[in-house]
Amino acid sequence: MLLVKEEIHMEYKVQLLKEDDKDLLRFTLDKVYDINLNSDDQNSIKNLFYAIIKEAFKEDVIFVLDSDYHEKDLFFDIANDYIAKLNDEIKTIRQQIPSEIK
């Protein structure tokens, strides 16, 4: 008899927001992580990525841009591209995690 371990899949909505003249991507995991698309600050990205890696050890993580954002502008396109690349990176990382650890 062959036993197949079932993967748990978790989809997270990402919000694209405008707050105080900032364009933000808001990720909600164990807490809220805001990525300012107008800033070069790498600390918020690093903190988000660590939280995502922790989740990736537990379950298959996929991020989806919340469709409530009404302005289809440059930041919407950037956000879609950012999330697509992030999902690709997470998929690559998940494939490298030994199955005994997942």
If you had to describe this structure to a student in words, what would you say it looks like?
This protein is an alpha+beta fold and 102 residues long. It has one domain (9-96). Helix content is 38%, strand content 28%. The protein is built from two helices and four strands. The protein has helices at 43-58, 74-96, and strands at 9-19, 22-28, 32-36, 60-65. It has a four-stranded mixed sheet with strand order 3-2-1-4, covered by helices on one side. A hairpin with a 3-residue loop joins strand 2 (22-28) and strand 3. The mean pLDDT is 85.
Mean pLDDT: 85
What order do the strands of the largest sheet run in, or round the barrel if closed?
A: 3-2-1-4
Count every helix, treating DSSP H or I runs of 4 or more residues as helices: 2
Tell me the helix content: 25-40%
Computed over alpha carbons, the radius of gyration is 15 Å
Q: Can you tell me the number of structural domains? A: 1
Major sheet: size, sense and barrel closure? 4 strands, mixed
- How big a fraction of the residues is strand? 25-35%
Any low-confidence stretches, pLDDT <50, length ≥5? none
Number of strands: 4
* Structural shape: elongated
Q: Could you spell the SSE succession in H and E letters?
A: EEEHEH
Q: What is the end-to-end distance?
A: 22 Å
- Overall structural class, as computed from helix and strand content, comes to alpha+beta
